Amino acid sequence: MTQSASVRLEGIVKRHGTFTALHGIDLDIRPGEFFALLGPSGSGKTTTLRILAGLESVDAGRVLIDGADVTATEPGSRDVAMVFQSYALYPHMSVAQNIGFPLKMIGTPAGQLDQAVQDAAAKVAISHLLDRKPGQLSGGQQQRCALARAIVRQPRLFLLDEPLSNLDAKLRLETRAELRKLQRSLGVTAVYVTHDQEEAMTIADRMAVFMEGRIVQVGTPHEIFRKPATATVAAFIGTPPMNLLPAVLQGGQVRMGKASMPVTVPAGAQAGEVTLGVRPGDLRLGAAGIPARVEFVEDFGDSSIVNLEAAGHRVKLRAGELPSVREGEGVHLSFDPAAAHLFDRATGQRI
Ligand SMILES: Nc1ncnc2c1ncn2[C@@H]1O[C@H](COP(=O)(O)OP(=O)(O)OP(=O)(O)O)[C@@H](O)[C@H]1O
Ligand SMILES: [Mg+2]
Asked: Is the CB of 14 under 6 A from ligand 1?
């Protein structure tokens, strides 16, 4: 039976010459969790994963797996398996040989190795492809082969770096759900790197949002969606992401130019310059509110996105039914006071 590991990062600093890729990362991942590292390109996700795998050294801080300090432990002795975006399969080996490779490296007897390869291949539904070479597989099948190779040793920690990014959109969705099921059935802890916020939202139990080598928020997808910690996180989460507009908070109102809207103000909030955030799904078209002009409408059949311009800013509104508005038409936007997110304009922090 596979055990699942806990993971702890303490004050991890990573430098490349004068460039600091990670500025002191602290993170706790619980046994059996599906944990996503989410953030834009260059924010330090892969670096963090490679440090967990032992493929990268650290300049400061500690890595603990199941409470044991493995900061100086070789990758092969950490009992972790990693799946890369590129799959990194050996082209001259058969699928069976690729899957069995990690076991062969540790001298597993042939009979036991064959059985483990069969089991791993069955779990990802590629039992019929064992004699082929990677070059004779589709992208999705190669990806499964890489997964089978990762699970064949029954690691306690599973590290995945954008493992679905080479698949087309439909296959990516299917494989995402299967991957989640596989992780659950194995009971293994998974750390999953992605820059796709929708992917992280749908697959993870919890996630850490990375920005410029720092973790800016940790929580369940629901918590991060409901209460983004900074305006930058807010701008990164949701499809389409939250609208952000400069405004002035005064009393229970935000003022944008001549328009004022009532908002629910958190206790202790100071009057002053803020960034007002409203999700596209929380905006309404109406007779009163913030003046805006319709630029164009995207019709998705079951929903639509109205693209607008308000006081020089791009705004998106999501509607269920196709609203009867014309391009160029002047409209007004409103929202429920409780739907407003307020961020400090100077620091970006949630108020
Ligand atoms: N060997 C290296 N030398 C110098 N800089 C590096 C090196 N490896 C990574 N970096 C830098 O460290 C930062 C973090 O890189 P990392 O690969 O962790 O980003 P990422 O979040 O995985 O991005 P992506 O989504 O593009 O994969 C980047 O700015 C990158 O250019
Ligand atoms: Mg990366």
From this structure: no
pLDDT-derived band at 95 (thresholds 50, 70, 90) equals: very high
CATH code, domain with 215 = 3.40.50.300
Q: Are residues 210 and 311 located together in one domain of the fold?
A: no
Please answer whether residues 12 and 51 qualify as being in contact, where contact means their C-beta atoms are separated by less than 8 angstroms.
yes
Cα distance from N-terminal residue to C-terminal residue, the chain: 47
Q: Can you give 15-36 as a three-state secondary structure string? A: EECCEEEEEEEEEEECCCCEEE
Atom of ligand 1 minimally distant from the CA of 50: 18
* Mean pLDDT, residues 281-291: 91
Alpha carbon nearest to ligand 1 atom 17, residue: 46
Average pLDDT over residues 6-13: 98
List C-alpha distances in Å: 102 to 52, 162, 194, 271. Answer: 18, 21, 25, 61
47 lines ligand 1 (CB under 6 A): yes
**Could you tell me if 153 and 90 lie in one domain?**
yes
Query: In this structure, is residue 156 part of a structural domain?
Result: yes
Is a pLDDT exceeding 60 seen at residue 219? yes
Domain residues for 25? 7-232
Ligand 1 pocket, 41 CB below 6 A? yes
Total-model pTM = 0.90
Same domain assignment for residues 185 and 243: no
Tokens of 105: 């490296």
